[in-house]
């Protein structure tokens, strides 16, 4: 299988992380979003939406959207709970990541860390802080009660939310305010097969 992605992107990194944790053989094709490589004719033939990551299977079937890729790769693994309610909670957190977490933390990170907080986007950056901190507070409250987001064992919920959470400081968020998230990040980083996001501080 071949994965198109940029490891600086949390959405791509989460795919790389589950591939490594599950020791799935794959090829990684780096795609530079900032250089416009997701909008070339060749890439648009793979994903007409012009976004990464994209997974191309050996039979040439293509799967896009990071969380859909995670679910495909981790099917029948311990990363997806077998208990019906626990599985639903995993999905709840994965939807939370896409609607209540990533739109604030990932966008703030892009504006500050990659664009250098340009004056034209400063007001937008400031407006994202409340939503991002709300998401982090919700996570921290859950992690005060459970080792991982869906109980005592890690699931795809943790992989999904770890990706942008552990670099939230690059978006102006102070993770020292969230001690349970800090403990959780250390636990994820200690998992066998863990693959760190390339440093770009």
Protein described:
The structure is a single chain. The model has no long low-confidence stretch (mean pLDDT 97). The protein is globular, with a radius of gyration of 17 Å. A hairpin with a 5-residue loop joins β3 (54-56) and β4 (62-64). It is α+β, with helices and mostly antiparallel strands. It has two domains: 2-74, Glutaredoxin; 84-190, Glutathione S-transferase Yfyf (Class Pi), Chain A, domain 2 (Up-down Bundle). It has helices at 10-21, 41-46, 66-73, 84-114, 122-143, 156-165, 179-189; strands at 2-5, 27-30, 54-56, 62-64. The two termini are 30 Å apart. Helices cover 50% and strands 7% of the residues.
CATH class of the largest domain: Mainly Alpha
N-to-C CA distance: 30 Å
State the total count of DSSP E strands: 4
Count of helices? Answer: 7
What portion of residues is helical? 40-55%
From the structure above, extract its key features.
7 helices, Glutaredoxin, Glutathione S-transferase Yfyf (Class Pi), Chain A, domain 2, 201 residues, alpha+beta, globular, 4-stranded mixed beta sheet
């Amino acid at each position: 299988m071949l994965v198109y992605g940029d490891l600086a992107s949390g959405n791509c990194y989460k795919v790389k992380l589950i591939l490594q944790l599950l020791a799935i053989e794959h090829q990684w094709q780096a795609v530079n979003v900032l250089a416009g490589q997701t909008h070339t004719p060749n890439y648009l033939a793979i994903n007409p939406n012009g976004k990464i990551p994209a997974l191309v299977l050996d039979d040439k079937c293509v799967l896009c959207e990071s969380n859909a890729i995670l679910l495909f790769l981790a099917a029948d693994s311990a990363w997806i709970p077998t208990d019906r309610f626990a599985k639903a909670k995993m999905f709840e957190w994965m939807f939370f990541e896409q609607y209540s977490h990533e739109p604030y933390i990932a966008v703030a990170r892009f504006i500050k860390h990659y664009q250098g907080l340009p004056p034209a986007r400063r007001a937008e950056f400031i407006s994202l802080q409340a939503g991002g901190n709300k998401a982090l507070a919700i996570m921290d409250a859950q992690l005060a009660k459970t080792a991982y987001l869906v109980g005592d064992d890690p699931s795809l919920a943790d992989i999904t939310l770890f990706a942008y959470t552990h670099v939230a400081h690059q978006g102006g968020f102070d993770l020292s305010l969230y001690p349970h998230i800090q403990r959780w990040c250390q636990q994820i980083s200690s998992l066998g097969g863990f693959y760190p996001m390339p440093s770009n501080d």
